[in-house]
Amino acid sequence: MSFGGFAARFALMVLCALTMVAPAQARFWQCAPYAREISGVEIFGNAHTWWNQAAGKYERGHAPKEGSVLSFAATSRMRLGHVAMVSKIVSAREVLLTHANWSRRGGIERDVRAVDVSAAGDWSQVKVWFGPLGGLGTSSYPTNGFIYSGHAPQVSPFDAPLVIAKAQPTTTVVVASVAPVQVARALPTGHGALDREVAALK
């Protein structure tokens, strides 16, 4: 076998190995879905809509709290806005953010610096660490404030029981649950054939 043939086969084997490993790390993240996933703030849509959507659903404010989402206003350079979760408070005017799609398209950054540069100290203007510069740089960004995740829904829709039928107006029969650990249960007992079918499933 020639050296060229060996090199081509080796390159093909490396490429195959990389395609098997890469999919777990290769997800392309937008900022909004990533912020929703890590913060528990259940808001959907582009980042610039989050602040108004949060009104009445979540508390909002101008002081950072761990787990809150910093909502960036839309600008000519950032037309869809941006959202990032506060992962740690360093001081009254500095936090660490965890977010996606900032320094690198689709990439995730954890615990990067963000500094309040507003004249009033109200977090209405910030500088954020930018990977290619290795620092904060000169750009600053307007923000709406923080969306606090404390009022996020505590029960996932996938954990709630799936109600298929009602035996009586005041009695709910739960035949199955969406949660993978629950198979079946019936409340209350005394419904004959249904009890036997549920017992067979247990």
Please give a structural write-up:
- There is one protein chain.
- The chain is α+β, with helices and mostly antiparallel strands.
- The protein is built from four helices and nine strands, in the order H-H-H-E-E-E-E-E-E-E-E-E-H.
- The chain has a six-stranded antiparallel β-barrel.
- It is elongated and about 70 Å long.
- The N and C termini lie far apart (62 Å).
Task: Please tag this protein with its features.
202 residues, alpha+beta, two-stranded antiparallel sheet, elongated, disordered C terminus
**For the report, how would you describe the main beta sheet?**
6 strands, antiparallel, barrel
> What would you call the shape?
elongated
Strand content: 25-35%
Q: What count of helical segments does DSSP give?
A: 4
Q: What string, H for helix and E for strand, traces the elements in order?
A: HHHEEEEEEEEEH
End-to-end CA span: 62 Å
What strand order characterises the main sheet?
2-3-4-5-6-7
Radius of gyration over C-alpha positions, nearest whole angstrom: 25 Å
Low-confidence runs (pLDDT<50, min 5 residues)?
Answer: 19-24, 151-163, 170-202
In short:
This protein has helices spanning 3-21, 31-39, 50-54, 193-201; strands spanning 60-61, 69-72, 82-91, 94-100, 108-116, 125-128, 141-147, 161-168, 171-177.
Task: Describe the protein's topology.
Blueprint: H1 3-21, H2 31-39, H3 50-54, E1 60-61, E2 69-72, E3 82-91, E4 94-100, E5 108-116, E6 125-128, E7 141-147, E8 161-168, E9 171-177, H4 193-201
Antiparallel strand pairs: 1-7, 2-3, 2-7, 3-4, 4-5, 5-6, 6-7, 8-9
